[in-house]
């Protein structure tokens, strides 16, 4: 019983991490239809920014905040300086972000070396709390809380503000949105900044879970983020959340109860199954 | 939104044209091993030296792979993130069959795998389109990568890779002194691939592929079954990639797990766009240049340790300022 | 009073020089029809006015030069647009399409819109992309009529509308024209005849005739020369 | 060939990519070893060593390209790489082209005895495992678990443990192999706790190590069993976290373990504390110098000159075994306290001698 | 939601039937059912006596069912000629023949040329379809549909957006297609004059049902049709 509780709660923690990693990608993909490979770059940069600041100031919280703000600003810059020229042509956008992913990962490795860097987190995060006999690491609770907050905040942003509408419409037909008197560019920049900030948040928290940041943490997380977004359904923020929970729990159970190390294959299988049975994803729109 | 229609706006319709330049270049390329000429800085030795020939062999192989990728991506509008799987299939089938059964069997098995694997996987992946297709191919490639690296049946050598059982190879393929033969083999592969793809594009299905890239639904209403055509393009492209994988293994002396990594396929994407996707010669040029740079940058510069930093940046600049790729530099912009 | 003055408007699309110095003036109030054969550049003129097509030349709206403004700024000066191909946002619902069209700071005439097109009210939650061609046209019109406009640019509103709806649309435009200046591109000459006070005719990238619409349509010679038709019905 | 008065030596290792850090150590160690073995003259047996350094980016394709280039330019001696994947593809080239290849730090057992032309300058997995065994003495009838990542490096460790502790030692060995890209290790820690083994052997590399150790500590694995693992480079000492003092470390090399002449020379040349792969680079240089001294530019004489050679490397006394070119060398037991490694015991080369794999 | 209810319509070989009805009556939906882009919940579709209710889109097209789209649907990055040639090639078969190169002397090319001539955009043959004006695209749309000499031709508002000048031309083309090829034609049309001028019979739809189907004269006189569709004529 305590094992099951342990697996379930840590599985939810894993799900929370996957959701955070996927959320920025899902937001940008869902709203702007950009398959943003640079998301991987921000996952890495966020981790390194958090590490730099934490190392200098000794405060992980400050590191986290600085990472989020810094990456949001950087993402906004990237959108205005680079991506903006390419609206209307999706493939070049994908390509641009691929280039950024490759370049930024290499840059980080060049500057900080290829060894992982240790990220010091507050002691309480690494301690455990017993629930029904299962020792749960406290950082998993942190993950779950942050993920829930992000989910609620983003849902409100999409439902309560016009930005969601503007961007969905802008993706479909950008000139027509401007012809309704709306400055699409501002909305796009904002969303991109949010995406960058979310990536940084996920990158820094990944660093906190792993206790280290590494140059290619972004690239390896990115694949998981893609898988979560696709399983959840293109353009569905809620879908990403559901998929993250599914993947996190399934992986955790498979790793314990299943054949040794079935955890990674099961994710791939799940993806293949979803694509074949329900190509638009669990909660995706039929086709947009 | 539909990826393929969007792409159509950036990609011009290419009209492959034959000219005298192609055979002339081919003859020149074939004569390189006899040229005891060195281009300083650019190459670290004379053309006839094994090191340069080896590099050029790799460039030819990768250019061939890039061409097969462009057939999918640039001309049919199918964005695949799993193309490396077929190159890997070619490499590993060759290495495994060579050790077990010898050279002739290795070729036979590779051809068979190159036909059956893409037919089977393509039949599944092509049930979906757009990003979902990209993800399905990614999923299978990931499964392939996991298979290779984890190596449950102890055949692939895991991340250590599988060196060729060179004692079972014909003598002319073994040893540094025989670099010219491997170069001609790679050049032959490139010529064959380019010719096959060019022929296919100029064929009747070739036209349909481009129409599918533009507007798939409309193709169906005209009475053509897009699925069949896409599967055809997918199989042809993957088959040629498998073939290239075989030559790659012969040139590099073994199969290695890097090819199954998703960054390998991303590299292909970069090559194709670098050269100019959906353009004659685009992928070829991109494949040559990218492979050259990724091998030589580290050697050329002591300041920049990470070649991908330069390549990634170059790629970004190119996408922004030369969306047609390098190939668009050589040709005046014309209509159609 | 001149509402809109266009001088020497040039537009290049790809390699073709589509508008080669179009000049005309539009009086305040009422409907001015912009006429011409297929492909002369009527749509391009409207898009040029809005800044949706790259343009050169002078455009004066309400006394202010607007040719350098980005599209959304032009629109915020009170320019409504009903595009030729409807261009509704297929992935958004009807209601979302309308909400998006609300220009901040003004009144939004949902009552007018729903009165004109009750169908839209019924179908508020339907995705615009699944609506019939005519329904989409209603939505495109509604999007523009929702706001207080100074000028309304309307490109072929009757296209794909059933006859009785064409009549309804005509009524609606007539009503709106009492408040707003309308520039109307339309192939349906009977509609033009009913609505338009003035007309401008484009040919070969230029405005070749401007004046009273009734005079133009009442003169079979001119209509044949400029529009290529003997006036029917 | 021609009896010129210089010999070209190519050092092939990662200065970019995943294991660039290891490559850097190897290169620095090599330079130090070269200075030491040639007494600063850069000459061996009267011949000048022309050493060039090349990046393999831990990519076998790049490595074979560079090797082919060098061989084509008349290089007779290649050395280096910290990646087993690269080593496995370069070694056959050496045999095909009849040149000498002294592998760097790649630990895979498969390099030993792979062919007549290939030697190794570092330790092999077998020696690691043998050292682990020394922590429990006899394992007969005991339960041993191997916790490793499911790829070549981890699998090799599992295989070695099964051979050393299982087949030879009489223990029951249970592997727990974890997919490479795992983020949460709780289920595996739980499996270990449930199984209560007498010994847990952990073979780990990469950025998930810190997370893995923390999870083991959180799930109270250290209370349930005795844990042994390898001590890698100094940059990773922090990854063990608070659990560090509960772990028994087997070590290939750490600066505090020895203080012979070679080790001192290494530290002096570097001007800093040597790290694990510095020693391998140093040793590789020693072997290159020996080969050239004995063979000039004749590869077969280089080989006979190396076979059976006994010498002092930074780790201590080492011997190149003639039959399969295994490098017999001492290994260390260590503990970490306060982030500083301390020597617990030294195993002599014959206590950790791998079985002979005669070359093909 | 139920969009069509119990619509039964029989069209004889070589007949021109115009489908009319207010916006949203289900005309395009009817076409989508016939071409196979959508599947009916109930009912059957017979083409030349054979049941094609479950056949995929491309198979029906092979059996001679062609259509044009209300909302223009072309291959924008191919030239006008290539657009039509593709359609011609499709119906001639052998499109999967990888070994057959597309040559300059291709019967499909001649056919395509004739179709372009017929709709009057032969002079734009070498331009990209994307660069045509709206009217031009509408004509190309018709060319794509007729080039295959279909047995049954479905035209969804072929004259929408065409200038008054071109309407008679297109009307003439449609009639010629029927007269020379014996093609059965079903078209949706909001222009009364065109519908009345062309159609042998007119079918009027309303709220997803078939209100009437008869000769133009009788349909126009039908009171129900008057109120449902025509309203006060302009
Ligand atoms: N992107 C483009 N590139 C080149 N030429 C174009 C482009 N778009 C339109 N054109 C050309 O510009 C001309 C004017 O087009 P426009 O759509 O303004 O005509 P229009 O008067 O509105 O015609 P219609 O009555 O058919 O709607 C046409 O000849 C068309 O072929
Ligand atoms: N996927 C869908 N979901 C909901 N309603 C739909 C869907 N598809 C079509 N409809 C509705 O079905 C009705 C019939 O549409 P259809 O396009 O067939 O009309 P139509 O007769 O062609 O009209 P028009 O003359 O305006 O083109 C419309 O009211 C439309 O909104
Ligand atoms: Mg127009
Ligand atoms: Mg319709």
Structural class of chain D: alpha/beta
How big a fraction of the residues of chain D is strand?
15-25%
Q: How many separate domains of chain E?
A: 2
Q: Largest interface, per-chain counts?
A: A-B, 44 and 41 residues
Taking the sheet with the most strands of chain D, its summary is: 7 strands, mixed
Q: Strand order, biggest sheet of chain D?
A: 8-7-9-10-11-15-16
**Low-pLDDT segments, ≥5 res of chain E:** none
Contiguous helical run count of chain E: 9
Rounded to the nearest angstrom, the distance between the terminal CA atoms of chain E is 33 Å
Shape of chain E: globular
Rg result of chain D: 20 Å
So what's the overall shape of chain D? globular
Q: Quickly name the level 1 CATH class of the largest domain in chain E.
A: Alpha Beta
Keywords (chain B): Cell membrane, Membrane, Transmembrane, Transmembrane helix
Membrane topology (chain B): Multi-pass membrane protein
Protein name (chain B): Branched-chain amino acid transport system permease protein
Pfam families (chain B): BPD_transp_2
Explain the overall architecture.
The complex is a heteropentamer of chains A (288), B (336), C (233), D (360) and E (234). By secondary structure, chain B is an all-alpha fold. Helices cover 68% and strands 1% of the residues of chain B. Chain B contains 14 helices and two strands, in the order ααααααβααααβαααα. Chain B has helices at residues 3-10, 21-31, 50-76, 84-101, 103-125, 131-150, 179-202, 204-214, 216-221, 226-252, 262-275, 282-300, 307-321, 327-330; strands spanning 162-163, 254-255. Chain D has helices at residues 20-37, 60-72, 84-97, 125-133, 152-168, 186-195, 209-218, 221-224, 261-270, 276-295, 299-306; strands at residues 6-13, 43-44, 47-55, 77-80, 100-103, 118-120, 143-149, 172-178, 199-203, 226-231, 247-251, 310-313, 316-320, 327-328, 331-337, 340-347. Chain D is globular. The model of chain D has no long low-confidence stretch (mean pLDDT 91). Chain E contains nine helices and eight strands. In chain E, the strands form two sheets. A six-stranded mixed beta sheet of chain E has the order 4-5-6-1-7-8, sandwiched between helices. In chain E, strands 2-3 form a two-stranded antiparallel ribbon. In chain E, strand 7 (201-206) and strand 8 (209-214) form a beta hairpin. In chain E, helix 3 (80-92) crosses helix 4 (107-119), helix 3 packs parallel to helix 5 (134-146) and helix 4 (107-119) crosses helix 5 (134-146). The longest helix of chain E is centred in the C-terminal third of the chain and has 15 residues, at 167-181.
């Amino acid at each position: 019983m305590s094992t099951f509780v342990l697996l379930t709660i840590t599985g939810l923690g894993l799900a929370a991490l996957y959701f955070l990693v996927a959320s920025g990608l899902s937001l940008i993909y869902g709203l702007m239809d950009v398959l943003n490979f640079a998301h991987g770059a921000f996952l890495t940069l966020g981790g390194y920014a958090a590490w730099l600041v934490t190392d200098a100031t000794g405060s992980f919280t400050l590191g986290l905040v600085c990472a989020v703000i810094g990456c949001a600003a950087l993402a906004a810059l990237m959108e205005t300086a680079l991506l903006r020229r390419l609206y209307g042509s999706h493939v070049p956008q994908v390509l641009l972000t691929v280039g950024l992913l490759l370049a930024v990962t290499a840059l980080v490795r060049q500057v900080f070396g290829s060894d992982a860097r240790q990220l010091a987190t507050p002691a309480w995060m690494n301690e455990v709390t017993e629930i029904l006999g299962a020792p749960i690491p406290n950082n998993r609770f942190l993950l779950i809380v942050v993920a829930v907050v992000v989910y609620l905040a983003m849902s409100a942003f999409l439902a309560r503000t016009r930005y969601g509408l503007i961007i969905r419409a802008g993706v479909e037909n950008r000139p027509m949105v401007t012809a309704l008197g709306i400055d699409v560019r501002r909305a796009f920049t904002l969303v991109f900044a949010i995406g960058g900030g979310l990536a940084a948040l996920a990158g820094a928290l990944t660093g906190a879970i792993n206790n280290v940041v590494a140059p290619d943490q972004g690239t390896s997380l990115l694949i998981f983020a893609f898988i979560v977004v696709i399983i959840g359904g293109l353009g569905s923020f809620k879908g990403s959340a559901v998929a993250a929970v599914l993947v996190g729990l399934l992986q955790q159970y498979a790793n314990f109860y299943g054949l040794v190390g079935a955890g990674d294959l099961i994710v791939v299988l799940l993806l293949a199954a979803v694509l074949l049975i329900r190509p638009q994803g669990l909660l995706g729109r039929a086709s947009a | 939104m539909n990826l393929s229609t969007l792409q159509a706006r950036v990609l011009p319709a290419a009209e492959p044209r034959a000219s005298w330049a192609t055979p002339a270049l081919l003859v020149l390329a074939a004569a390189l091993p006899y040229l005891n000429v060195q281009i300083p800085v650019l190459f670290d030795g004379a053309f006839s030296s094994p090191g340069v020939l080896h590099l050029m062999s790799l460039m030819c192989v990768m250019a061939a792979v890039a061409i097969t990728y462009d057939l999918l991506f640039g001309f049919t509008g199918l964005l695949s993130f799993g193309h490396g799987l077929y190159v890997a299939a070619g490499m590993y089938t060759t290495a495994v069959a060579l050790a077990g059964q010898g050279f002739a069997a290795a070729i036979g098995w590779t051809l068979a795998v190159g036909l059956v694997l893409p037919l089977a996987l393509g039949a599944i992946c092509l049930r979906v389109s757009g990003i979902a297709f990209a993800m399905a191919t990614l999923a299978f490639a990931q499964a392939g990568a996991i298979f290779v690296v984890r190596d449950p049946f102890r055949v692939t050598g895991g991340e250590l890779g599988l060196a060729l059982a060179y004692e079972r190879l014909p003598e002319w393929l073994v040893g540094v002194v025989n670099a010219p033969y491997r170069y001609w083999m790679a050049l032959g592969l490139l010529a064959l691939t380019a010719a096959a793809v060019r022929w296919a594009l100029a064929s009747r299905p070739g036209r349909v592929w481009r129409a599918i890239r533009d507007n798939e639904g409309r193709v169906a209403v005209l009475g053509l079954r897009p699925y069949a055509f896409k599967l055809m393009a997918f199989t042809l492209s993957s088959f040629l990639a498998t073939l290239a994988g075989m030559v790659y293994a012969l040139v590099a002396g073994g199969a290695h797990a890097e090819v199954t990594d998703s960054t390998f396929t991303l590299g292909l994407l970069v090559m194709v766009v670098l050269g100019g996707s959906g353009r004659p010669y685009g992928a070829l040029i991109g494949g040559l240049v990218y492979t050259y740079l990724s091998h030589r940058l580290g050697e050329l510069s002591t300041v920049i340790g990470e070649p991908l930093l330069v390549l990634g940046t170059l790629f970004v600049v190119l996408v922004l300022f030369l969306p047609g790729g390098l190939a668009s530099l050589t040709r005046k912009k014309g209509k159609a | 009073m001149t509402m809109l003055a266009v001088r020497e408007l040039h537009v290049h699309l790809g390699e073709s020089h589509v508008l080669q110095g179009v000049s005309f003036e539009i009086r305040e109030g009422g409907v001015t029809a912009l006429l011409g054969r297929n492909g002369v550049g009527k749509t391009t003129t409207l898009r040029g006015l809005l800044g949706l097509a790259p343009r050169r030349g002078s455009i004066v709206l309400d006394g202010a030069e607007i040719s350098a403004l980005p599209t959304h700024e032009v629109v915020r000066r009170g320019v409504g647009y009903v595009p030729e191909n409807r261009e509704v946002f297929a992935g958004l619902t009807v209601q979302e399409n309308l909400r998006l069209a609300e220009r901040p700071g003004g009144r939004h005439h949902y009552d007018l819109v729903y009165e004109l097109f009750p169908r839209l009210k019924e179908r508020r939650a339907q995705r615009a992309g699944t609506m019939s061609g005519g329904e989409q046209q209603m939505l495109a019109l509604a999007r523009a009529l929702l706001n207080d406009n100074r000028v309304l640019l309307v490109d072929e509103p009757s296209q794909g509308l059933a006859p009785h709806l064409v009549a309804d649309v005509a009524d609606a435009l007539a009503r709106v024209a009492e408040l707003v200046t309308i520039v109307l591109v339309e192939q349906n000459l009977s509609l033009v005849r009913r609505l338009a006070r003035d007309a401008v005719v484009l040919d070969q990238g230029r405005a070749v005739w401007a004046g009273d619409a009734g005079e133009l349509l009442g003169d079979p010679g001119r209509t044949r020369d400029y529009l290529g038709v003997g006036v029917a019905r | 060939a021609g009896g010129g008065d210089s010999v070209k030596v190519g050092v092939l290792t990662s200065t970019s990519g995943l294991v660039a850090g290891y490559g850097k150590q190897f290169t620095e160690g090599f330079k130090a070893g070269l200075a030491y073995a040639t007494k600063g003259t850069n000459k061996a047996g009267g011949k000048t060593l022309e050493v060039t350094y090349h990046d393999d980016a831990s990519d076998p394709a790049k490595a074979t390209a560079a090797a082919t280039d060098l061989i084509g330019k008349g290089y007779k001696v290649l050395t280096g790489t910290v990646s087993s994947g690269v080593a496995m593809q370069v070694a056959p080239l050496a045999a095909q082209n009849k040149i000498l290849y002294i592998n760097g730090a790649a630990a895979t057992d498969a390099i030993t005895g792979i062919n007549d032309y290939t030697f190794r300058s570092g330790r092999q997995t077998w020696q690691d495992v043998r050292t682990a065994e020394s922590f429990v003495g006899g394992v007969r009838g005991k339960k041993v678990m191997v916790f490793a990542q499911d790829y070549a490096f981890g699998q090799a460790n599992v295989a070695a443990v099964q051979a050393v502790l299982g087949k030879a030692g009489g223990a029951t060995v249970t592997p727990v192999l974890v997919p490479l890209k795992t983020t949460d290790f709780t289920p595996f820690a739980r499996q270990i706790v449930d199984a209560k083994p007498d010994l847990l052997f952990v073979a780990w590399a990469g950025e998930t190590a810190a997370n893995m150790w923390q999870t083991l500590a959180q799930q109270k694995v250290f209370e349930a069993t005795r844990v042994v693992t390898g001590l890698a480079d100094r940059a990773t000492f922090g990854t063990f976290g608070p659990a560090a003092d509960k772990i028994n470390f087997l070590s290939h090399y750490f600066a505090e373990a020895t203080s012979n002449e070679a080790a001192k020379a290494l530290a002096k040349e570097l001007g800093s504390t040597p790290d694990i792969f510095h020693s391998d680079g140093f040793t590789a240089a020693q072997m290159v110098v020996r080969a050239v001294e004995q063979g000039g530019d004749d590869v077969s004489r280089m080989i006979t000159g190396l076979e059976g050679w006994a010498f002092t490397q930074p780790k201590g006394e080492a011997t190149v075994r003639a039959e399969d070119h295994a490098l017999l060398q001492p290994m260390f037991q260590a503990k970490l306290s306060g982030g500083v490694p301390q020597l617990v015991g030294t195993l002599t080369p014959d206590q950790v001698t791998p079985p002979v794999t005669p070359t093909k | 939601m139920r969009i069509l209810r119990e619509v039964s319509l029989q069209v004889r070989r070589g007949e021109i039937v115009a489908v009319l009805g207010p916006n949203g009556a289900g005309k395009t939906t009817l076409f989508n059912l016939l071409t196979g882009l959508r599947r009916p919940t109930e009912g059957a579709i017979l083409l030349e006596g054979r049941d094609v209710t479950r056949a995929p889109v491309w198979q029906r097209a092979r059996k001679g069912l062609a259509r044009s789209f209300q909302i223009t649907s072309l291959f924008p990055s191919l030239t006008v000629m290539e657009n039509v040639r593709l359609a011609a090639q499709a119906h001639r078969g052998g499109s999967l023949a990888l070994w057959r190169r597309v040559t300059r002397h291709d019967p499909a090319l001649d056919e395509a040329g004739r179709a372009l001539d017929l709709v009057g955009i032969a002079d734009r043959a070498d331009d990209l379809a994307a660069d045509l004006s709206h009217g031009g695209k509408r004509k190309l749309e018709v060319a794509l549909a007729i080039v295959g000499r279909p047995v049954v031709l479905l035209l969804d508002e072929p004259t929408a957006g065409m200038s008054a000048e071109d309407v008679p031309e297109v009307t003439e083309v449609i009639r010629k297609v029927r007269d020379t090829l014996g093609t059965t034609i079903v078209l949706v049309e909001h222009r009364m004059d065109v519908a009345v001028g062309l159609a042998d019979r007119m079918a009027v739809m309303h709220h997803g049902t078939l209100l009437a189907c008869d000769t133009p004269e009788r349909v126009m006189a039908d009171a129900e049709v008057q109120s449902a569709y025509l309203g006060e004529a302009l």
